[in-house]
Amino acid sequence: MPDPMTPPQTPPLLFDAAALRQRRQRAQRLGPATFLLDRVTEDMTERLSAVLRDFAHAADIGTPCDALADAKAIRAGSATRHDLLGQSGEALNIEAGSLDLAVSLLALQFANDLPGVMAQVRRALKPDGLFLAALLGGDTLTELRQSFAAAEAEIEGGISPRVAPFGDLRDLGALLQRAGFALPVADVDRIVVRYDNAFALMQDLRRMAATNVLVQRRKSFLRRSTLLRMTQIYSERFADADGRIRATFDVVWLSGWAPHESQQKPLKPGSAQMRLEDAVKPKA
Is residue 277 part of a domain? Predict the structure, then answer.
């Protein structure tokens, strides 16, 4: 058990919020690539349609662009937006027990304190309120990560962080339980996008504001020789028969409910009315 006199540890600062804000502004100037966000928004609508209720008060936690600007998109009477890149950082400042629904699309992968954000959402929900989020995780951009690492090791004799670390399904699902959500569910939707070459992929990443915003990223310009070697390695290892390359995006879906007495609960150990041995014993 943690010592109550020990102050809580500050989570490590992985992502540069100022850089992410600049990347999003650049994406708007270039013309944002929203195909991934559009797909996730459509999936969210389908998932919410399976919930047989309406939500009076909802909140959008950090979803980029204006994908959820209309409260009707989440079947809510009213909806507020809370930016994870605001002046208060990742402090949501939502009144406890004020929300029926909290949603977040393709934003939480950039949270420096994801457990803290989820705990704030759990606190903001009314009993039996729903949290539904989609974030990039798993093997997202694994091809790009491997190609950059191989190119830098070969050309520069070492590697630097080029692609953000992504949480895996099991760890992200465990965060739901850690934050106190009931009936937690985590699943992954793997989306494979094909490109003519790695340059086309990197252009899309710029227009998605998904380029490197790691605090520990190398601040100097990427060597041309390293970039060209990376594209060669990418094509050698991750191209289909027609020469086009693959890029993986793993969208991890998380859902959980604020606890309520009406929810189903697991049976207590030892409360079964029949022994397993009797259940599987062949009948005479």
Answer: no
In a domain, 63, yes or no: yes
Q: Over the Cα atoms of the chain, what is R_g?
A: 22
pTM of the model: 0.84
Q: Could you tell me which residues come within 8 angstroms of residue 191 by beta carbon, excluding any fewer than 6 positions away?
A: 36, 39, 248, 249, 250, 251
Per-residue pLDDT of the chain (284 residues; tens, 9 = 90+): 445 444 456 667 888 888 899 999 999 999 999 999 999 999 999 999 899 888 999 999 999 887 676 555 677 788 888 988 876 778 999 999 999 999 999 999 999 999 999 999 999 999 999 999 999 999 999 999 999 999 999 998 877 776 777 899 999 999 999 999 999 999 999 999 999 999 999 999 999 998 888 877 776 678 899 999 999 999 999 999 999 999 999 999 999 999 988 877 655 655 555 554 554 455 55
Q: Is residue 115 part of a domain?
A: yes
Q: What angle do CA 140, 144, 145 make, to 5 degrees?
A: 80
Domain containing residue 99: 17-142+165-214+247-258
